Structures are given as structure tokens and as C-alpha cells.
Amino acid sequence: MNVILVGLRGVGKTTLGRALAARRDGRFVDLDDLTAAAAGHTRVAEAFVALGESEFRRAEASALRVVLGYRGQVVALGGGTPTAPGVERMLADARTAKLVRVIYLRATPATLRARLAATDLRDRPSVTGEGALDEIGTLFERRDGLYQSLADVVLDVDGLVEGEVLERLVAATADLPRPPGQPASA
Predict the structure, then answer these.
(1) pLDDT digit string (tens) for 23-42?
(2) What does pTM read for this prediction?
(3) Which of 43, 64, 99, 144 would be 94's cystine partner, CB 3.0–4.6 Å?
């Protein structure tokens, strides 16, 4: 089974996904990196600008389709991946077939703004035309319900440090089979 992390930018999907994959002795996949590479770019912002949002979303859906063909991974989706054509159905079908566990890392817009303000925003393309920090509230309003409907588990991360969230992720995935050839305990 794959663990799929969803949530808005800045919530920690990549950082926590890497750490969770290491704890599970599995593979980590950052869908943003795969999508950018498939489009011939090294950075997601470059791919997003070069392709435009519609084509970028189609590329994300295509990359996810490939990724879901493998097992034992922790996959961090891009913040907008669930809005890509066909992705909501793809994830729902994979959940029904018990091929994935979708975990929504949820943070309030205020928390996300504070986290993003301390980062390099060059690889955070604007989706709404507002600045990366200004659009957080709009994106939260648009996507929170979708993320919740896709999730098997919703982890509210406000006020938690990285280690606390990681322990909650480990607990939320403790009942899942380990990647092939891996021990049942860590």
C-alpha cells in the first residue's frame, strides 16, 4: 500500500514524506519533482510557467497514474494535484481498492503563511495571480473540502513541531503492510 500526503504548500508534505518513508523503510516520491522532470525542467515553478496550469495539471495526473502502479511508497502530491483532471477519481478508486491511504496534512492559512514567509518562494508558482503568501487563504477555501473528502486521515498540524507530526504519521500508518522484504517492526 502507498501512503499519499495531500495538503497546501508549506504544510510539510515533502519533509515529512521523506522522514516517514525512512521510518517505514520505503521509497519517497515527490510528485512535483517527477512532474517537472517529465516536462524537461528541474524546478516545478519552471514547468508550471512553461506548460501553463492546465497542461501542468494533466502532467501531474499522468505522473500520479504511473506512481500508483508501484507499492510501498510515501508520495507527496503537489498542493494542486487533487484538482487535476481525473485525480479525484483515481485516488477514490485506489482508496476503494485499498491500494493507498490518503493523509491530509491540514494547517490554517495563518500557519501556512508564517511557514512560507520563512522560505524561498521562487519555486512556489502563483495559482490565482496573487502572491504566494496572499493566495493561501483563497487556496485553503477552494481546496480544504476536497482534501478532506479524499482523506482517510486528517492530521491538524497547527502548533505542532515536525517531530510531533511525524509521530502522528507513523501512528496513522502503523497498521499498513511494510514495503516488500521489510521487517514488520521498526
Answers:
(1) 999 999 999 999 999 999 98
(2) 0.91
(3) 99
